[in-house]
Predict the structure.
Amino acid sequence: MDRYPDRPEAAKRLGNLLSEARTSQGKIDQSSFAAVKPDLTRAAEKGVIPAMLLLGQFSRETDPAFALSWYEKAAEKGNVPATVETGLIYGSRGPEGETKALEYFTRAADAGDSYAKYLAGECYYFGKGTPANIEKAVEYLQQARALNEPHAMDLLGAYYRKTRHFDQALQSFKDGIALGYTTSLANLGVMYMNGEGVPANPAVAANLFKQGAEKGDPSGMFDYAVTLWDGTGVRKDRKAAMDWFKRAAQAGDRRAIEWCNQNKIPFK
C-alpha cells in the first residue's frame, strides 16, 4: 500500500483483507493491535475504511477521542456502522453529546440500519438530545421491530404496557425473548406477577426472573432476588436472595445497589 498509494486496486485488496480481519477470530485482537496500529493508521490516512473501523474498534476503551476521530471519518465516507458507533460515543458523553448522537443515529436510521432506528427511537422516547416525542419514537421503534431489532421490541413492550395495551406488550416482550433479549424476560415476568393482560401467576413470573438472572440480566437478577427474599412464586431463600441482590448490584442495577446500601451489604 505504501509503495502504490494511488492505485485503487491495492487499496481495495487491503480493504478486503482488513474487513476479513475484523470479522475473523485470531486475525487482529486487542493484544496484537499495538503492533499493527502504525500500519492501520497509514492505511486509514489513505482512505481505507476497514482500517478506520479497526482503529476505532480497538481504541474505543483506551482512547475514545482517537476512536471517535476515525469513526467520524468513516461515517463521512458513508459507512453506516461507523455512523452508529460515532453516535454511541457522543451519547456516552451525557447530555452535552446527546444532540450530536441523535444526528448520527438518524443518519444511520435513514440508511436502513435497524439498531440505529432503535437508538433514534430511544432518543425521542426519553427526550435525549431532543424534546420527547412519543409519536416519532414509536414510528422509529416500529421500523426497527420490523427489521427484527429486539431492543426495539422491548422498548415498544414498555410503551404498550404503560399505555395499557397489554396484549401488544406481551407479544413485544415475547418477540424480544425469542431473539435472545434477556431484559424482556424480566419485563414479561413483571406482567405475570401483576396479572397484566394475563392471570396473575407468581410462579411463572419467578421462573422468568430466574431465566433472566441466569443469563446475566441485572433486572432479572434483582427481580429474582426479591421473589426469593419474599417467597413469592418460589420457596423463600434469603441466603440465595442476598447473593442475587449482590450480583445485581455488581452488574449495576440501581435498585439492587440501593437495597445493598440500605441493608449494609457490601457488594464491590
